[in-house]
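Kindly draft a sequence, keeping tokens residue-aligned:
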Amino acid sequence: MQFRLLGPLSVTAATGEQIEVSRPKTRLLLAVLLTQANSVVSADLLVDSLWGPRPVRSARANLKSYVLALRRTLSPLNPALAPVNTASNGYWIEVPPEGLDLLTFERLVDDAGQARRRGHRELASAHLETALALWRGEALEGIPLTTDRLAATARRFEDRRLTAVEHLIDARIESGRHAETIGELQTWIATHPLRERLWEQLMLAMYRDGRQADALAAYQRLRERLIEDVGVEPSPSVRALQSRILAADPALATPHRDAPDPVSLSAGHKPRQLPLDVATFVGRDDELTRARPLLDPQGDYRPQPVLVIHGAPGVGKAAFAVRLANLSSASFPDGQLYVNLHGATPGVAPVPASEALGRWLRTLGIAATDLPHDVEERAALFRSLVADRRMLILLDNAATADSVRPLLPGSPGTAVVITSRAGLAILDGSLDMHLGPLSPQASRAMLDKLIGPARTTREPEATQRLAALCDFLPLALHLAAARLKARPSWTVSHLVSRLLDERHRLVELATGDVGVRCSLSVGCTALRDSADPDDRAAAQAFCLLGALRVTHFHLELGEHREALQVLPDSLDRAQDPPPPR
């Protein structure tokens, strides 16, 4: 039997069937027992958790009834076989280490600490990536935190998660993978804007990526936030790092990398490189239902599926792909590989196929000194290593079909999920899925998760208006929620009033280096600098159309130039003052 606490509470029977624990009090009882798995929880604490400081007179008798109901739910045929046991002063649930995601998470984090102390950075990173992949949302999500003790328990789990994230980012930065951590750090900072360690890591990653000015600007943003919200200066370690960056301290340069430990699949290690599932993911049920069968076609012959998920900037392609990959991971027992190709990441150069292959080959057991130099040789070696295996590969943020072709396996059994702003139609054999904005209902549900139902239910109309002003795009919704979370005194209506001025809307929908404007500018720059004249014409048209007060403009392919010849004159006439009467 499998129990999950790192996200919504769920129970899976040994047969693989989901066990529904539907009664609220029974769910709460199970959650409290699982937070102290394999230890006795006193009856007094259980009564306090289920009824609060003023329990009903029959609380003790009712507790026994709820325990019996829980046993019947977990083992309907024979409640006596349920893992819920009675002690002299309370109850306890017996769970093996691999039967509860919380226990597995703690074990993997401890294993990562031991590997880090032995100097095995790559192995430590692998343990942390596997541990963090267990999180499907917030700890105890959906469980009412009825007591201060239970709320503190949930906060302790979340803090342990953040600490693991920081250790993983430390390992990546020390391994020279600073560029790929910048975007991830900015995402975590948007959720935890006062977590100084994350800011400190962001400053170091930016500095090592040759972005000294950005690193210093990040320090200023942290300082302003701390003074405004808490009234304190940054910690001594953050101030010291700022001074070292100002002085261009040579010791801050990327340290010399020793050859990483070869981690072999044959030795039992199976890569689990999928990024963290987004805790605030909502909606997309129809899209997930359509996509999952595409990754695991039935029948004796299983062709290599390549699914390209494409859509506009900020529509949530990466979050959807990660959720899809996690839901499908059980069909790929030999592990998952991941790389962010940064095909449309502001300020970050795209990852060459040769570098991506090098990372995967090291993960699959090839020593750094044995890596081929030629990209075609690396691709051939990679195809050989994954042949006859069932693996799942996620290629995030791809720019072109050419950038991903060397990364595709050559044999059936391994599925590939690709996210891209444009459909990669010229990729042989690929399946396309277009992702559009969220529905108004899903957008409202996302805001409930991001800023809390206590604030959204007070202003339902303003919350719905906020979702509409964000065009129901997950990126914009996250940025708007980050503004509200960082300023508890603001109401939803206050932010809506600021967004109503469309001249400043893009300025408002930004936090740190993450913003809607940055996301749009990458696409515009790519079109403007393209070798294709139609792309350059589209970029010019986009700028000119910005002067028109329209939300949709349809243009058939091949008509760019003709339209552009007429558009400037039309704009000039539209902006001329009216003739005198």
In short: The two ends are 83 Å apart (CA to CA).
